[in-house]
Amino acid sequence: MTNSEIAVVFEQVADLLEFKNANPFRIRAYRNGARAIRDLGEPVTAILADDTRKLTDIKGIGKDLAEKCAILVDTGELPMLNELQSEIPEGALAMMRIPGLGPKRAAILFNELEVTSLGELKLACERGSIRALKGFGEKTEASILKGIAIAASADKRIYWQQADQIAAQLLQHLGDCPSIEKMEMAGSYRRRRETVGDLDVLVVSEDVAEVMDRFGEFPKLTDVLARGDTKMSIRLRSGLQIDLRVVPAKSFGAALQYFTGSKDHNVELRGRAKQRNLKINEYGVFCINTDEDEYIAGATEEEVYAALNLPVIPPELREARQEFAAADANDLPPLIEMEDIRGDLHMHTNATDGKHTLAEMCEAAHARGLEYIAITDHSKRVTIANGLEADRLLAQWEELDALRKSLPDGFHAIKGIECDILESGELDLPDDVLAQADWVIVSVHFGQHQTSEQITSRICGALANPHTHILAHPTGRLINRRNPYAVDMDAVFAAAADHGKMLELNANPARLDLNDVHLAAAKSHGIPIVISTDAHAADQLDLMRFGVMQARRGGLTKADVANTRSWDEFQKLLQNG
DNA sequence: GCCGTTTTCGGCCCGACTGTTTTCAGTCG
Questions:
Q1: In the listed set A297, A328, A359, which residue is the last one of a domain according to the structure?
Q2: Which residue has its C-alpha nearest to nucleotide B25's C1'?
Q3: Distance from CA(A577) to C1'(B24), angstroms, rounded
Q4: Quick one: pLDDT at residue A92?
Q5: Pairwise CA distance, residues A70 & A41, whole Å
Q6: How far is the CA of A44 from the C1' of B5 (A)?
Q7: Residue-number span of the structural domain to which A201 is assigned
Q8: Is residue A333 domain-resident?
Q9: CATH code where residue A34 lies
Q10: Where is the domain boundary, A246, A272, A291?
Q11: What digits encode the pLDDT tens for the residues A135-180?
Q12: Cβ proximity of A370 and A343 under 8 Å
């Protein structure tokens, strides 16, 4: 059983306990446990197999959750979860995904009206039987009816890239308000999470009404969900919710910190404040006095963190993982920046499924300030992309040799290939051909549904090939569309480290493969990461920034990423590999 | 259910908004 499978079980337990109105801190303990396991960076099974180590050494895992991990690993299931699931039908849980319906009122609907699915709930609303319940009314009934459609399509988090486009439009729209002194996006968008569930925008203005009126005129809006003195929420036609907060200037940093989250990061931060007899809220940091709390910081995030003797923790790291320990040890990583990138080592041309020619890709890369690129078209197995046979590949390299003479000084294009790892585990091109390449990417496109054993041994075998430099899109996942292969990533990290191979961080916003947790794990193994666009057209070379953001979330520095090297250093890296 | 530089028991972040109430519970982030 993998870490993420264990984490899912703990999340399910938490959801069900929440529905049962259990002790909220017990529920939180399960959620924290799930997060701790998911973010662990090494398999729970490995710790269990090692007599010298204990699961209870993991923060958030106590005696009970450690036992439950062991049961899950041994038997593949958890009796406690089975029991809870027999009490509470899946459809009842679905009610909690309706905005405005939490565990308390969902339980009332389940117990009083015996509603066990969203369909039955819809009927109950239409019959008007909800409004008769104590604590419910006509408005609640109407809002539930409206929310059922939202719940049915819940969990639709959008790509960061899509959120970025909406954020830009929103900032421009609000920018017309003369009273706005400061404005910034917060939330998971600011933390650069790979997907975003909603947007948060923070504003300093003396004229709250003006800002809220303008916010209510956002062209994509369909509903105003709430409007108070400082907070307003809207929903867009796409279903995306946007929250606006208007705060005084002296609270801007505190509010920015607060609304950037993550929630778990803030819980940790507030706990620390409490130990110092301080209190943090979105208005500032306060010293708790008997008569009146005294404001001591809040205009900037620097002030807020400094009040707790902490440096500003980059938003990308605010996930309650290692960032506080690193900050305490004065060891926060200097995260990689877009300006650090010097090369792009995965791209396609019109020889296979790319749009542009070799020359056009070189020109576009040079225009973007890159110093070196690798041309890496598909190998023959990818017939749908017109993958290259050995002779066509050799011909492409000849063409590249000729083109090199006309390339600008200081710009280098190397001979690469994205060679398929066949279902059998063989590579798609013979070793004598791969031996002539400057840069060999291996990757999986077929047989993605093989068993964990099959696909893991297949990928690790490809990493063992002496001609291989790097594994591309290592898990194969497409965000919101396709699950990762059943590959055992811990085995992949071990193989890459053993054979001195690199791993790709594919920068495509739909892939972002490796994810942040995998990147941190790869870093801990000392495996060089290469951030690549996998561009299939010249303008897709611009996707690099999404990969850099993901790398930052993984805690990577310039030194952890191979394509930040100068051309000379990169060549040395290749020779040593 | 977890955790420990006041603690092995008694805490566990904190405030805004809505709807249904007549002073507050539930939900959300």
A1: A328
A2: A135
A3: 67
A4: 84
A5: 18
A6: 31
A7: 158-246
A8: no
A9: 1.10.150.110
A10: A246
A11: 888 888 988 888 887 777 666 789 999 999 999 999 999 999 999 9
A12: yes
